[in-house]
Design goal:
Blueprint lengths: L22 H8 L6 H4 L17 H13 L11 H13 L4 H7 L6 H6 L5 H18 L19
Helix pairs in contact: 5-7
Length: 159
């Protein structure tokens, strides 16, 4: 869960953003050593310049992006961290995730009259969407066999 008013979040939130973990996520996270997890509940922590503990920050993502860029991976064009959100959102559409669920997964809120009347959290629907995405990624990287009904996003035909 990302708190509503967590430092470093780019938008003002009135409610926390709950991100349900998939079985794949839980397996990966359980293998990580997190010496400060019991102290703060955080697995990934940023470090300010003075070395004190900090809440999770964009610095973690920037460091990961810099590491990937340093490996000279050949992408079609330069990329930004925000492109990952766009990729996930587009991929969920191609995996037949309902648009409102995909929007909730990436942290967008539902507005208008729906926001007033629909107080359901959609946790299980978000978990299912993220599980579909995880299964797709495992197929792309070769950790799961490709089935006949899985079409890589780049090969999908748009009408």
């Amino acid at each position: 869960m990302l708190p509503a008013h967590d430092p470093g979040r780019s938008k003002t939130r009135t409610a926390p953003h709950l991100v349900p973990l998939t079985p794949t996520s839980v397996a990966i996270l359980s293998e990580l050593e997190a010496p400060n997890r019991e102290h703060s509940g955080c697995i990934f922590k940023g470090r300010p310049r003075d070395g004190s503990a900090a809440s999770p920050t964009r610095a973690i993502l920037v460091a990961a992006k810099n590491d990937l860029d340093a490996r000279h991976l050949k992408f079609g064009e330069p990329w930004r961290i925000h492109d990952l959100r766009r990729t996930v959102r587009t991929g969920m559409s191609q995996l037949s995730v309902s648009p409102h669920i995909a929007e909730l997964v990436i942290g967008h809120s539902i507005g208008g009259v729906v926001k007033v009347y629909d107080r359901y959290d959609y946790v299980e629907e978000k978990r299912e969407a993220l599980t579909r995405w995880a299964d797709y990624l495992l197929t792309v990287v070769g950790e799961r066999p490709r089935s006949d009904n899985v079409i890589p996003i780049g090969e999908a035909k748009v009408s």
